[in-house]
Amino acid sequence: MGQKSCAMTSTPPPDATPGEHVAVLGTGLIGTSVAMAAARAGCRVTGWDIDPDTVAHAAARSGLEPRPRLEDAVVDADIVVVATPIAAVAATVTAALLAAPGAIVTDAASVKGHLVTDVLAVMGDDVQATVRYVPGHPMGGSERSGPEHASASVLDGIVWVVTPHPDTDAAHTEALESWIERLGARPVRLTPERHDRLVAMVSHLPQVASTSLMGLAAKEEADEPEILLLAAGGFRDLTRLAASQPALWSEILVANRDQVASAIELFAARLLALRDAIARGDTAEVESLFERSKRARLGLATKPTVRSGVAVWQVEIPDEPGALARITAVLGAGKVNIEDLQIVHSPEGGRGTVHLTVAASSAGSCADVLAGGGYDPIRLA
Amino acid sequence: MGQKSCAMTSTPPPDATPGEHVAVLGTGLIGTSVAMAAARAGCRVTGWDIDPDTVAHAAARSGLEPRPRLEDAVVDADIVVVATPIAAVAATVTAALLAAPGAIVTDAASVKGHLVTDVLAVMGDDVQATVRYVPGHPMGGSERSGPEHASASVLDGIVWVVTPHPDTDAAHTEALESWIERLGARPVRLTPERHDRLVAMVSHLPQVASTSLMGLAAKEEADEPEILLLAAGGFRDLTRLAASQPALWSEILVANRDQVASAIELFAARLLALRDAIARGDTAEVESLFERSKRARLGLATKPTVRSGVAVWQVEIPDEPGALARITAVLGAGKVNIEDLQIVHSPEGGRGTVHLTVAASSAGSCADVLAGGGYDPIRLA
Question: Which end of chain B has fewer CB atoms within 10 angstroms, the N or the C?
Answer without folding.
Answer: N
